[in-house]
Design brief:
Largest sheet: 3 strands, mixed
Number of domains: 1
Oligomer: single chain
Keywords: Membrane, Transmembrane, Transmembrane helix
Strand order of the largest sheet: 1-3-2
Strand content: 5-15%
Number of helices: 7
Distance between the termini: 26 Å
InterPro entries: Zn_peptidase_2 (IPR007395)
Pfam families: Zn_peptidase_2
Protein name: Zinc metallopeptidase
Organism: Cytobacillus spartinae
Radius of gyration: 20 Å
């Protein structure tokens, strides 16, 4: 029964987060911002006001594929947000610019996350191979090695949380201080940003739960030896 509850949680939590972000985005992508600025214009204006003239703004394919690329110093916005005049488009554009500002200021958590990328990728790719072999072959040492690799990937997801929340806070400060949104639009903008942040919270929560479960399996194997 405990395992059923556990697996229900790791399935329901991400689905709930996705439902929230899609619902908030769908609702507020139909609400025009008072400034009537396109997402691309919002991004460009905030970048320029912070002296980030070297950071580009490009359109990218897909739905909610918006991101900041620190390698090419480019804010990439999905077509709907690049061309859209909505509150949602302004919020997401400002959020991605928030990451560009973090990069320019060498924000500590962002630098730490970048440093974790190689080991996190290694952990994501190889941890489950070691874990499964360790469990089925009853090799606790191999299982422990897999858990260590997985812990690095989990740490990456946990460190992502302050990075994302800080970018959202920066986004709110920018759009309000620059008059891109009005006071009565702040609540709507926050709902979009908070819903998007939930996806990262859900991913981190599921990753931590899975790590704890594997540690319990390992300690159980150790007690049997």
């Amino acid at each position: 029964m405990t395992f059923l509850i556990y697996f229900a949680l790791i399935i329901i939590i991400p689905l709930w987060a996705q439902f929230r972000v899609k619902g908030a985005y769908k609702k507020y992508s139909q609400v025009s911002s008072s400034s009537q600025m396109r997402g691309a214009e919002v991004a460009r204006r905030i970048l320029d006001s912070n002296g980030l003239f070297h950071v580009g703004v490009e359109e990218t394919r897909g739905h909610l594929t918006d991101h900041y690329d620190p390698r090419s110093k480019t804010v990439r916005l999905s077509s709907q947000n690049y061309h859209g005049h909505s509150v949602a488009a302004a919020a997401i554009a400002a959020h991605e610019v928030g990451h560009a500002i973090q990069d320019e200021e060498a924000y500590a958590f962002l630098r730490f996350r970048h440093a974790l990328v190689p080991v996190a990728n290694l952990g994501s790719n190889f941890s489950w191979i070691l874990i499964l072999i360790g469990i089925f072959a009853q090799l606790s040492g191999l299982l422990l090695l897999g858990i260590i690799f997985m812990a690095a990937a989990v740490l990456f997801q946990v460190v992502t949380l302050p990075v994302e929340f800080n970018a959202s806070n920066r986004a709110m400060d920018q759009v309000v201080s620059m008059g891109i949104i009005r006071n009565d639009e702040e609540k709507e903008t926050k709902k979009v940003l908070n819903a998007a942040a939930l996806t990262y919270v859900a991913a981190a929560a599921v990753a931590v739960l899975e790590l704890v479960r594997l540690v319990l399996i390992y300690t159980g194997m150790q007690s049997e030896d």
